[in-house]
Amino acid sequence: MSLRQLSQSSLQFILFGGKGGVGKTTMAAATAVEMAREHKVLLFTTDPAPSLADSFGQKIGSEPTAVEQVPNLFAMEIDASKVLKEFKEEYGSEILDILQQGTYLADEEAEELFQMEIPGLDEVMSFKKIMDFMDNSEYDMYIVDTAPTGHTLRLLMLPDLLDNWIKFLGTLRWKYHTVVRHLAQKGNMEGADKFLVEMKKTVKKVHALLQDVERTEFVVVTIAEKMAVAETQDLIKSLHKMQVPSGHIIINNIFPQDESDFIRKRRGFQDQYIQSMKEMFPHHIITEVVLQATEVQGIAGLQTLGTQLFTETAEKEG
């Protein structure tokens, strides 16, 4: 089976994720190259150790970079720390107002709290950066090469994380307005209030996108090994719980059919896990990709793999 269904739908947002080292970047890049035949595509990576530059054989920056030899394809490596810094610079005064006016903290204490590292906020900012690009509607399709599973799940939990954060800030803001109304008998919409309203809209928009079966698909990439199968099962359960559409699995690095004793044994070992995944996920489209002798790098290699991924054959070489 293949990924052909992805190109025959109304999808706009495709994420590739799974265990580290299973080939997510290669599959995302090959898919982006294939999709760029008919769509203007922006490929992101949220991986802290990005490798898009290696895949394409060219430098990829923190802003959309045209991929050489592939019209309509652009790529970027999101620098989460940079995005977080930009976010604080843009909204810092509003957040500090909320902390200072809604608590008994001194100004320097509020500043110290604002500067604290919040676990997972880098993933949050990565997703917000993606949403900003989608709001501009400059591209037809957005493909995301996600970080290993743990980071990815935090990324997908963005709506709940942001929602809780906004509720906390909103509670502080409500206390402040209660006092203001009591003293001045009126209330005004200030910058901090507008910030909370806009962030709430962003959360609602992300929720809607992630759960939209017409626009979003999460492609799980894995390999035929015990730990990878277990992690794949956990990931798909989490996606189902979060209502993120996911109907495709790519099983990568499968040993080719061969007469040598070593390869035959390795392939037999893998076949057990391949069959196990087919039984575990009967409603998923499973694409099998055969291990190549060399790494898939450069446009020619990605084009070949992309064509294979989207062609209905028994096995793909990639």
From TrEMBL:
Gene Ontology molecular functions: ATP binding; ATP hydrolysis activity
Tell me the SUPFAM superfamilies matching this sequence: P-loop containing nucleoside triphosphate hydrolases
Q: Which InterPro entries match?
A: ArsA/GET3_ATPase-like, ATPase_ArsA/GET3, P-loop_NTPase
What family, per the record?
Belongs to the arsA ATPase family.
- Residue stretches making up the ArsA/GET3 Anion-transporting ATPase-like domain: 12-309
Domain of life, per UniProt, equals Bacteria
Q: Read off the CDD domains from this record.
A: ArsA
| The protein's name in its UniProt record | Arsenic transporter ATPase
